[in-house]
Amino acid sequence: MNAALYGFGPERSRKWILVDCGMGFAGEEHTPGIDLMYPDLSFIIERRKDLLGILITHAHEDHIGALVEMWPKLRAPVFATRFAASLIATRKLSEPGAPKIEMTEVAPGKRFSLGPFDIEYVPVSHSIPESNAVALRTPHGLVVHTGDWKLDPAPTLGSNTSEATFRALGEEGILALVCDSTNIVRDGESPSESEVATTLARIIKDSPHRVAVTTFASNVARIRAVAEAALAAGREVVVVGRAMDRVITVARELGYLDGLPDFKTAQSYSYIARDKVVALLTGSQGEPRAALARVAEEQHPDIALTAGDRVIFSSRTIPGNESEVNAIINALVRKGIDIVTDRHDLVHVSGHPRKGEMRQMYEWTKPRIAVPAHGEDLHLAEHAAFARAQGVADVVKARNGTLVRLAPGRPEIRDHVRAGRLYRDGDIVIPALDKAIPERRKLAFAGIVSVAIAMNKKGEFVGEPAVDQLGLPELTRSGDKLIDVVDDAILDCIKGLSRAVRRDPDAVEDAVARAIRGALRNVWGKKPACHVMVVEV
Ligand SMILES: [Zn+2]
Ligand SMILES: [Zn+2]
């Protein structure tokens, strides 16, 4: 959920720019029913009249995914390269009622100013076309916000991280480098995208039957590599999955897939000979509704794989998705399908810099201050130690919501501002602290018992209580029905109630709920949620 704010000026008249507006993916285990999250931007929403612009570094969801949701509350002009702007536009088309975002296209290398900020888009290589660092020049110094980047001696498409440009920035004098930490724990340097392309070409050429490749939908260089490999092996490419269709449409328009034959639709898959096809599938993270999961479960209307076919995971499993991805791999292996992952061969490289690349970046830029960004605590801590070892004078450990003064004077943490998470729950956006989430967890853990009891005006019970339960086991250890335990607990409780209590429906509800939970704890060891309603008749 990348969203970095830079402010300039005295507090009363301070002007801001926001770099990126990304979303995150929530783990279903801790947040049942929630899969997307957004940053809580209350701080800048309250100051939106001083927000001069939103700069998008590149089109990955963790950098643009919250824009459509948050923009109506910010209403500042958005700056993005053509590829990112086009992807944001196609994404909006798929969300009815999406706002009309004020968007300005920025050419790579372009320099323009917003209030006190002189802004330069500095091209970098990454795993999506048109990625940029932003150089922010102010009267108090130059800040370089790297965005996501890597070094690639032989990128297959898109921009490259230019040593000359970063060295020139370093010579100009960089006050602070706010830099990607994602891959800092890995030593050495990333292999090049072109080595991945060579490996894919070899594997596809040597495959006896069908080949399916799954990768991140937005990785145009990888899509291109697969298409070139298919072409060289005399195979057609079939594209399956909406997210990939969307990216491919934009990539074709912008010329990133020039020279390649048109891709085939999923419907044409069954007409192509088994050794003449490569299917490009979404779902490399095990997303249950994406193409790959449906193929693995034999639920896809058009695409089927059989023993002897091959599936290449040209991707990395993002932490948290392991069990879903492994379930798919196991399902495919059971069918006799051959699996290739980045553990078997060089079929994927990360778009983020390893230590060796980071060392070069620090050497070129020589910042006075380092602010590790984009990573978990482990990555940020490792990056901080690394920056110190590179001889950076000041290393600032900023977490979400940390307000850091970079200049004038030595850097200093000034404040911690509100910066939580918001969850997308169906069509509603809720704060992370909304009680819906712990309630759902509780229901998932021990279910719920609902009871309705009818009473007349004199405080006498009418008829039998109605009882329903959801998510409870059927039988106790000794084989009794759990529902009978609940029934008995209710009847025993009711019998023992005093006349005074009977006249107070709230007190009856409390007493019955307590009795049920107590009885279930005794036979089950767990206490479900319990809803008791006394209805006066
Ligand atoms: Zn990225
Ligand atoms: Zn990112």
Note down, in words, how this protein is organized.
By secondary structure, this protein is of the alpha/beta class. The protein is built from 16 helices and 26 strands. The strands form six sheets. A seven-stranded mixed beta sheet has the order 8-9-10-11-12-18-19. A hairpin with a 2-residue loop joins strand 22 and strand 23 (428-431). Helix 4 packs across helix 8, helix 5 packs across helix 11 and helix 14 crosses helix 16. The longest helix is centred in the last third of the chain and has 20 residues, at 505-524. The protein is globular and about 90 Å long. The mean pLDDT is 95. The structure holds zinc ion (2 copies). The site of one zinc ion has 5 residues, from loops. One zinc ion is lined by residues 2, 60, 62-63, 148, 374.
The value of Rg in angstroms is: 29 Å
Roughly what percent helix?
25-40%
DSSP, total strands = 26
Secondary structural class: alpha/beta
Bound molecules: zinc ion
Largest beta-sheet details: 7 strands, mixed
Regions with little confidence, pLDDT below 50 for 5+ residues: none
Strand content: 15-25%
- Average pLDDT confidence is 95
* Total count of helical runs of at least 4 residues: 16
Distance between the termini: 54 Å
Sheet with most strands: strand arrangement = 8-9-10-11-12-18-19
Coarse shape: globular
Give the topology, please.
Elements: E1 4-8, E2 15-19, E3 24-25, E4 36-39, H1 42-46, E5 51-55, H2 61-64, H3 67-74, E6 78-80, H4 82-93, E7 103-105, E8 111-114, E9 117-124, E10 131-138, E11 141-145, H5 163-172, E12 174-180, H6 193-205, E13 211-214, H7 220-232, E14 236-240, H8 242-253, E15 277-281, H9 291-296, E16 310-313, H10 322-334, E17 338-340, H11 355-365, E18 369-373, H12 377-389, E19 394-395, E20 402-405, E21 412-416, E22 421-425, E23 428-431, H13 436-446, E24 448-455, E25 461-470, H14 482-495, H15 499-502, H16 505-524, E26 529-536
Parallel strand pairs: 2-5, 5-6, 6-7, 11-12, 12-18, 13-15, 13-16, 14-15, 16-17, 18-19, 24-26
Antiparallel strand pairs: 1-2, 3-4, 4-22, 8-9, 9-10, 10-11, 20-21, 22-23, 24-25
Helix pairs in contact: 4-8, 5-11, 6-7, 14-16
One zinc ion binds next to helix 2.
